[in-house]
Structures are given as structure tokens and as C-alpha cells.
Amino acid sequence: MKYLIAILILCSFQILAQQPNIRTNQINIARDTYGVPHIFAPTDPEVAYGLAWAHSEDDFKTIQTLILTGKGKLGTYLGKKGAPVDYVFGLLNTRKVVDQQIKAMDPAFIQLVQGYLMGLEAYAKAHPQEVLNKHVFPIQLEDYIATTMFSVAIFCGVDKTLPKILDGTIPHLTGFTGEGSNAFAIKSTKSTTGEPMLVINAHQPIEGATAFYEAHVQSEEGWNILGGLFPGGPLIFHGVTPNLAWAHTVNFQDKIDVYQLHTDKAHPGQYEVDGAWMNFEKRKIKLNIKGIPFTVSKMAYNSIYGPTVKTPKGAYFSLRLPALMDAGALQQWYAMNRSNNFQEFKAALTQNHLPMFNIMYADKQDNIFYISNGKMPYRNADPKYNWSSTLPGNTRATLWNTFKPLDALPQYTNPASGYLFNTNHSPFLATTTAENLNPAKFDKYDGYETYHNNRSQRAKDLIDGYDKISWEDLKRIKFDRQLPAKILYPYGLDASLLFSLKESDYPALATIIQGIKQWNHVTDIESVGALYYNIAYYQASKLRTSGSKDPLTEAEAVQLCQYVHDFLLKHYGRLDVKLGEFQRLQRGTEDWPQAGMPDVLAAVMSEPFGESKRKMNSGDAYIGFVKFPKDGGLPLIETVNTFGASSHPESKHFADQRAMYQAQKTKVMTLDKVEVLKTAERVYHPG
């Protein structure tokens, strides 16, 4: 299922209106000294065309895998590994909603997307040897928007929920996860220089279809923004304009509902709702799989609740989520891109197309703002319905159809404290205690987080240590690699016993027990204690496959220490192994020691790397610092990405930001066209 989480934007094209006029000789792609593309053109569609061309130069293969997903053809390239994605794409049937809504979309947005898709088509025509297979092109607009919906639905939890239905572990209760992002907004009153600041810091995969790509786009029609986007994206998802900036983090309110339907053998092909038997909507999804010479068909079901899955035991479950009801998420991002002030930005948010994502905002007028955004339904508040678990799918009492307005969502504007922050934790813990929102004022069924995580607790501790925060202070906070004094163990476990075992009770494990107890909670590459904890962290998930949140027992704590001890002796022959020996950052054929771990502010998530190591696969990704100067000039911008602008190993920009990233340094960026062109490494037209 890992490819399901990887699809955020996808490309296609069908003329709904006249194609935009694209003059490639008027489009300039300026590559700076780090290879980051700055796209300049007269119109927004021409800029989007240039962005498509530039991004294709750097990562055309990844973009094409997303195109194939939007056609239900990923299996033609990835074989059996792509077939489940194709089936789920067909099951969710987002194309049906697109067909219903596309004619009502903003014509300017449609023109933008058309320009972008024309750029992809042109690049493919000019580089036929890079096209993956015959199914990629041509591309259609409806497929593109349908895949946008699909992508956001994956972010909303479909990729986690479907496997749990199929393997019988539903109901699923949300707990702590290793996913994350950080965002901070600082008002002038909290800033040492009296200048508002923002931190953009997504924690994403560091390679692949949801790895952030940095770009700057500027038209003569008023579009000017620098920031991060995913492969296949025709605009910036979060970034900075001359007047404002925003950052996204993932939020974990209840975005998806699961219903068990009432069926019986006396009514084949039907399910019962309010005493009446209704027919399932059935569709055959045809799967083309590389290596299989014939088309494979698989049945997809739909009920009044939504897409429906039949389990191996014959039970039927339906999914219902706002992300499958609204095709306009990308259109709203475009409106956010084009906003010039706080009022226009808020107006863009009132479109209510985005079904999720926290939004942290700051601007040159000294406004700071945070909202736990979402397309939240009005659900039945009767306590007999547990919206965090499986719901009865035999009554319309659980069938919601209307949504809350923007002003009903948790949000803060210009708190007296002068700061706001989110690290994927509770929206009710976003600033000082006196100004935090009261969760009792929001419907319990919304499922908002109410907890601190390690990053939020550490961030709060650090912020509270400053009367006012400087530019360098803000960097120190964001780049912090220390867990809080009281570690909130992952997976929702209370693991206090791991830190309080007595060496005298377990002399054979004394070195491990003492190392964990004496560890200062700093996750640098020289730390042995950090290594012990890191190994235990990943092993802990295997102790509680049932999802139990009961405190870690002494026996389990000892079991973890024994595992660490045995693992190190088996693979290293000693116990004094440092974190940097075990945890690596890999790019191409090279790898380097990597500090950090899950749920520190400079987060690092990892996966097995051979038999004895782990390598970073996600975490601190695109990082941006923004400051709006007192003189009203262009914002000061510093950024860094994990590796570089290009995915091609032979490019000098394949990993030219890697050392800077690992050293927690940044590069200076600008929205000033004159400055960009003056210092550019290369300026050229697409084609």
C-alpha cells in the first residue's frame, strides 16, 4: 500500500475551454546555484507550463507514475505491485465526482492546469526515450483532478483503513503515529526585532512521489510564490509570497467513517437500511498488469454510504469521507497562492475544499493565524454512535451530508502571546495556556487530538524559555534534536518502566539499562543512549500488535532491553555503538551518519538498511524560514531540502544540499526577479 500514500497530484488533459496561449519564447526558467527553478512568464498558464518542463527535467519518472495512477494503469509499469493501487483508485471512483463538479470550477484554475499539462505533453514529445510506456500519454484533465481527490483521500486515512478492513482488524482507534510536520508563527511582539516570522517544516518521505520539490513561480498577472510542491503539482502547496506565507502540517481529526453493512444470505447482492433492502451498486474494475497477458477483473461495490469492500469472510464495510465528495482541493490551493493579504487568504479558505491539513500563517501586516482545517461533517451527536469506531450501516441516522463552515473550526488569530505552533498535536495546545481553545466547545465526534506529542512538548518548553525570539532562536527551536524530559512513548504507550529498571535486578542487561537511564535525550550521531532508545522504539511496535495502550510492563521493558543487547552483539560484537553508525542517510550509492529520530523537532523516521542498520526514509524534509522586514520590503527567506533539485545521479544538484541539510544550515532565497536573473547559473526557454 506504500504507493497509495504517494499520490498527491496527477496530470491529465481534456479541453473544457479554449487552450491557453503558450509562448515558450516568453517563458524563462532560471536555475539558481542549487538548481532550484525560478519560472518567469507573462501569464499563470505559461508559468505552469514552465514549471511542468522544469520539474520533468528533474524527476520525469516519478511524475509519470502519478499519471499512470490517475488512469488506473500503474500496474502496467509496476506489475503486481501497482495493481492494488489501480483497484483502490477504481473503487473510490473519484472520476464520477469530477464529472459532476468540473464545469463549476474556476476557469482561471482550469487554464492553469491546462498550461501545466501542455508542458508535460511537450516535454514527453521532446524526450520520447524517457516515457515509461504507451499508457502514460496523452493525459486528461478529468483524470488529473480525479487523482487529486484520490491523493487527498489517501492522506485522510484510506491507505490505513482499507488494509484493516481486509485483514479483520477493524475497528481501528487512532493513537500516536510517527508521521509529522512542524510549523511556527511568531508575531512582532514576540520577535526580538519586531518582525513577524514563520517556519515551514514538513515531515515527508525524502524521495519519491511525496518528497517536496522546491520551486519559485512568478507571472506578470500577480502570481509570485516560492515553496514546496509534490511531483505533478502545478502550483505551490505551502510557501511564501511577497506579502504572506503559510505552512501545512497533518492533522488527525476524524476524517473518515467506516460502516458495517447488514447483509444476509436471503438477500444476495443487497444490504438493509431502515428496514428496506437496497441493491449494491457493482462495477467491474479492469486491471492491466505488467507480465500478465490478459486483463484481470475485480468487483467494486458501492452503498449509500460510499465505496464498499467485501472482506474474505463475507462482511461488507463502507467508507465515507469528505475527501471523496469534493473535487476542488487544488483549486483552493491556487486561490491561496494568489492571495495578497489576510482577508483574501481567509476568503480562499472559505471555499472549504481542503478536507484536512493544519494551516499556520504569517504576513507582512503582522497577522499570525492557525487553523485546524478540515471539511468536517455535521454528524449525529447521539452517544450511542461511536464515531471513532465502526458504525452501524443499517440506518440513515449515521448518514451525514452537510458540512461545518470555516468559523466552526478550531482557530486562532493574533493571540496576545505573540506565537502559535503545531507539531501534529492538539489544536487546543497551540499557544499559552490562558489563550488555548477549550475542547469542550467543539463536538466530541470531530475527533480532534487532545494530547501533546514529544515535539510539541519540547517546542513549548523551548518557546517558554524566551521572552522574545530571534531569527537564530527560531532556527535553534526548529532544528532541535532533543526529546523532552518526560518522553511520551510512541504508539500511545506509557513506557516509564523502560527508564526505571534496576540494573541490579538484571545484571546481564546493566549496560543497556544504565545507558537508557543516563541518556540526556539528545539524538546526535555520537550518542550511545540514543541508539539504545532508537532500537527499542522500533521494536516496541511489535510488542503490541493488538493495539493495546496499557502501560509497558516490566517484563516488556526487560524484553526490549534484551533485544537491544542481543541485536548489538550479533551485528556489531559490542555494546558501545553510536547512533550515527546505525542510522544513515543514503543518496544513490553513498550514505552518511544521520542524527535525529522520530518525534524530535528535527525528526528522522527510518527503515531497515541491510541486516544491521537503518536508513532515513522520511522526516525533516523541505524546511523554510520566513521573516517579514519592518521596511515592508520582500520577505527574507532561507530554505534547505534534504538532497537537491535533481533526481538524476549524474547531476551536480543530485545531493548538493545534503551536507548543508545534515549540518542544519540554510541557503538564502529570494522572490526578487532581478536578483534571481542576475545570479542565475542558467536561464533558458522550455523546448
Write a brief caption for the model.
The protein is built from 16 helices and 27 strands. It has 687 residues and is an alpha+beta fold. The chain has a domain at 490-598.
What attributes does this structure have?
687 residues; alpha+beta; 10-stranded mixed β-sheet; 9-stranded mixed β-sheet; 27 strands; globular; disordered N terminus
Structure notes:
The protein is α+β, with helices and mostly antiparallel strands and 687 residues long. It has a domain at 490-598. The strands form 4 sheets. A 10-stranded mixed beta sheet has the order 19-17-16-8-7-6-5-2-1-27, with helices on both faces. Strands 3, 4, 20, 21, 22, 23, 24, 25 and 26 form a 9-stranded mixed beta sheet that branches. It has a 6-stranded mixed beta sheet with strand order 12-13-14-15-9-18, with helices on one face. A hairpin with a 3-residue loop joins strand 7 and strand 8 (244-249). Residues 1-16 and 170-178 have low confidence and may be disordered.
Topology:
Layout: E1 28-31, E2 37-41, H1 44-70, H2 75-78, H3 83-92, H4 94-101, H5 107-126, H6 141-166, E3 180-186, E4 197-205, E5 213-219, E6 224-229, E7 238-240, E8 244-249, E9 257-261, E10 270-273, E11 276-279, E12 281-287, E13 296-302, E14 307-310, E15 316-320, H7 329-337, H8 342-349, E16 358-363, E17 368-372, E18 391-393, E19 411-413, E20 419-422, H9 454-464, H10 471-478, H11 510-518, H12 528-540, H13 554-571, H14 579-582, E21 583-587, E22 590-593, E23 604-609, E24 613-627, E25 636-640, H15 658-662, E26 667-669, H16 673-679, E27 682-684
Parallel strand pairs: 2-5, 9-18, 21-24
Antiparallel strand pairs: 1-2, 1-27, 3-4, 3-20, 4-24, 5-6, 6-7, 7-8, 8-16, 9-15, 10-11, 12-13, 13-14, 14-15, 16-17, 17-19, 21-22, 23-24, 24-25, 25-26
Helix pairs in contact: 1-5, 1-6, 4-6, 7-8, 11-12, 12-13
